[in-house]
Design brief:
By secondary structure, the protein is of the alpha/beta class. The chain has 2 domains: about 180 residues, Glycogen Phosphorylase B (Rossmann fold, 3-Layer(aba) Sandwich); about 150 residues, Rossmann fold (3-Layer(aba) Sandwich), CATH 3.40.50. The chain is about 45% helix and about 15% strand. The strands form 3 sheets. Strands 9-8-7-10-11-12 form a 6-stranded parallel β-sheet, sandwiched between helices. Helix 4 links the parallel strand 4 and strand 5. Helix 7 runs parallel beside helix 12. The longest helix is centred in the last third of the chain and has 25 residues.
């Protein structure tokens, strides 16, 4: 099930790995991001089902809409469902699977901040999905530990993150990393989290305006597909020559820009997984993260949305070569790029065992 671009990025390797094992898949596109183009991820040859459930301001309403639309798809014949992450599409697929008694797997299970309001509603959605999943694919031992403490009923497997699977082939084709000779340091910035909509986006914009004015920095700001966030950021930053507002771009283009940036500022979960693998320092525009592994390796720092703190951290990094070098070392805290084949093998074996159990039950 795919509703958003991150889901497409992270489930494409899984679909391809399942196909390599002879398991036929249908791609169910919920419509959460209506403009999502799946061709760039190699989904063109897969049978496709469109639920036409566009994203809504109320994520809980979207969950209900997706769950209702998915019901007939499952009743038409489905052996297994795969959902990814923490979106309303993933939870909608979960509820539909439970109602139809169709087993399902959760890719990227076990991520936790411990605060149900940060991120909201994603933290609660993950907990609900993990509670009912038959197979739970954890990124790391830390995520697996979260699941074991919660005593989930499904099987927990540590596989790594499929986002790294998607990244590494792209990274290998990007060529040299950052260019140090340019006159001004370059920041790559993205932000979209709901908890920042009221004040955080304004604070981030304030920090960027100060950095380009006082520190001689150039900013590439990649806009999020969400039209509400886009409108806010265009209104706050459109009149600054040193801040380039870039329309939402495909995964490869975003990775190229990340690879060429001196520092990345983002509240994105995916970019927290990608930055360490590229060896680019990441300042996380959040107060708490469900992906602390990148902080442990030294590739990331939490800076929140306070303008003074953002400005101070950027200046500190640019002015301290040793600190910058420490954050620029490549690390792979989220996996080795082989998560999808592991997941496909586990699903294949699980389905084979299930068929054997059903056959024995039928013969009694």
């Amino acid at each position: 099930m795919i509703g958003t671009r991150p889901e497409a990025i992270k489930l494409a390797p899984v679909a391809h790995a399942l196909a390599a094992r002879g398991l036929a898949s249908r791609i169910v596109v919920t419509g959460q991001h209506p403009s999502l183009d799946l061709r760039q991820f190699g989904f063109g040859a897969y049978p496709r089902v469109d639920l036409n459930c566009a994203g809504q301001a109320n994520p809980h309403a979207h969950v209900r809409k997706v769950a209702a639309a998915m019901g007939p798809v499952l009743r038409a014949g489905t052996d297994f469902v795969v959902v990814q992450g923490d979106t309303s599409s993933a939870l909608g697929g979960t509820l539909a699977s439970v109602r139809a008694s169709v087993p399902f797997a959760h890719v990227e299970a076990g991520l936790r901040t411990g605060d149900r309001l940060r991120p909201w509603p994603e933290e609660s959605y993950r907990i609900r999905i993990d509670r009912d999943a038959d197979l739970l694919f954890a990124v790391s031992d830390l995520s697996a530990g979260n699941l074991k403490r919660e005593a989930v009923g499904g099987e927990v497997h540590v596989t790594g993150n499929t986002g790294v699977d998607a990244l590494l082939p792209v990274a290998a084709s990007l060529g040299p990393a950052r260019v140090r000779e340019r006159a001004r340091p370059r920041l790559l910035v993205t932000c979209h989290r709901r908890e920042s909509w009221r004040e955080g986006l304004h604070s981030i914009a304030s920090a960027l305006r100060e950095l380009v004015s006082d520190a001689g920095i150039e900013v590439q700001f990649v806009l999020h597909p969400n039209p509400h966030v886009q409108a806010i950021m265009r209104g706050l930053l459109a009149d600054h020559d040193a801040i380039a507002l870039i329309d939402p771009c495909i995964h490869r283009e975003l990775m190229r820009r990340m690879n060429e940036a001196d520092i990345v500022l983002s509240d994105s979960g995916g970019m927290q997984e990608e930055a360490p693998s590229l060896g680019v320092p990441l300042l996380v525009l959040r107060e708490i993260t469900e992906r602390p592994e990148g902080i442990a390796t030294g590739n990331m720092r939490l800076v929140g949305t306070c303008p003074e703190r953002i400005v101070a951290e950027v200046k500190r990094l640019l002015g301290d070569p040793a600190a910058y070098a420490a954050m620029s070392r490549r690390a792979y805290p989220y996996g080795d790029g082989r998560a999808a084949p592991r997941i496909a093998t586990i699903i294949d074996d699980w389905l084979a065992a299930r068929r054997q159990r059903l056959a024995r039950a039928a013969s009694w």
